[in-house]
């Protein structure tokens, strides 16, 4: 069953709040990754506030679903969503990348409640997520693993090795969500390392492919529901997104992959995102 109009509007309001707060956080810290954090906003919101079975009161509950942010540089948005979910106070966002913080530049399972895997080195996340999925299948909990991939991430051969293995072992409790914003650190993907038709590539490996608008929470939830229908295959949701979504001068720009936000840019971003 799809989202009601009321519920969709509620999730969209949350996304607006998260974008503003992440811009505030990154401006305050003068470090971090705005572009990829803004592109993954709806994906994380749809997961944590509609689909993923997690309990902040029991963050290590054995039968919980797992979320692996393979593109670990988008940690600021993950942290903001986890805070809203109740894993730690939202005020803690002010400590991002500070000395002795729990909110490091990339997710740390050792330090941050709600984080299921330490990530940062691109390419490694999907393999670890597959291992989690196979282990959970042995436990018969019905838990699923969601792996959020990025553009630079799928340049790595290890991703495609995991892709082959996931099909061989029929890991249908593994759902990858590809944050396809088409831009990476050094430029546009088609200029850096063209991958062609990614949908066709995953399909050729044997994955169930589900393209959708990655900034439409309703479409994302529908795609996740479809991916959760077991048919013996892992699923990949190819979420069409925009790097820097919501801030005009950041949209589609690789320069905003990891650039500090200056005062003038901050004021414009806040205004465009509906802040004060």
Structural class: alpha/beta
Termini, distance in Å? 37 Å
Shape: globular
Radius of gyration: 17 Å
Low-pLDDT runs? none
Helix percentage range: 40-55%
Q: What does the largest sheet look like?
A: 5 strands, parallel
In the sheet with the most strands, the strands line up as: 1-2-3-7-6
Mean pLDDT equals: 96
Strand content: 5-15%
Query: With helices defined by DSSP (H or I, 4 residues minimum), what is the helix count?
Result: 10
Number of strands: 7
Give the topology string: H per helix, E per strand.
HHHEHHEHEEEHHEHEH
What does this structure look like?
With 276 residues, the chain is of the alpha/beta class. It is 41% helix and 12% strand. It is built from 10 helices and 7 strands. It has helices at 5-29, 34-39, 41-51, 75-85, 125-139, 157-168, 189-192, 198-205, 217-227, 263-272; strands spanning 66-69, 145-149, 174-180, 183-184, 187-188, 208-213, 235-240. The chain has a 5-stranded parallel beta sheet, with helices on both faces. The protein has a two-stranded antiparallel ribbon with strand order 4-5. Helix 3 (41-51) packs parallel to helix 4. The mean pLDDT is 96.
């Amino acid at each position: 069953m799809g989202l009601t109009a009321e519920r969709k509007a509620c999730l969209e309001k949350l996304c607006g709040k998260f974008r503003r707060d992440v811009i505030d956080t990154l401006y305050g810290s003068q470090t971090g990754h705005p572009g990829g954090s803004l592109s993954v906003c709806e994906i994380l919101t749809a997961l944590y506030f509609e689909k993923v079975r997690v309990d902040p009161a029991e963050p290590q509950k054995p039968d919980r679903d797992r979320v692996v942010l393979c593109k670990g540089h988008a940690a600021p948005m993950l942290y903001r969503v986890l805070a809203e979910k109740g894993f730690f106070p939202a005020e803690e966002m002010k400590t991002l990348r500070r000395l002795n913080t729990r909110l490091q530049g990339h997710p740390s399972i050792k330090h941050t409640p709600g984080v299921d895997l330490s990530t940062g080195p691109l390419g490694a996340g999907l393999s670890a997520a597959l291992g989690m999925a196979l282990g959970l299948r042995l436990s018969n909990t019905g838990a699923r693993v969601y792996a959020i991939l990025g553009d630079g991430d799928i340049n790595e051969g290890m991703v495609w090795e995991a892709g082959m293995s996931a099909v061989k072992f029929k890991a249908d409790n593994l759902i990858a969500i590809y944050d396809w914003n088409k831009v990476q650190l050094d430029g546009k993907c088609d200029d850096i390392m063209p991958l062609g038709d990614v949908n066709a590539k995953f399909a050729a490996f044997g994955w169930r492919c589900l393209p959708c608008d990655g900034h439409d929470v309703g479409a994302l939830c529908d795609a996740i529901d479809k991916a959760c229908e077991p048919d013996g295959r892992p699923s990949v949701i190819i979420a069409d997104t925009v790097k820097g979504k919501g801030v005009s001068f950041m949209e589609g720009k690789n320069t905003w992959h990891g650039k500090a936000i200056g005062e003038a840019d901050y004021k414009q971003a806040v205004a465009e995102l509906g802040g004060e």
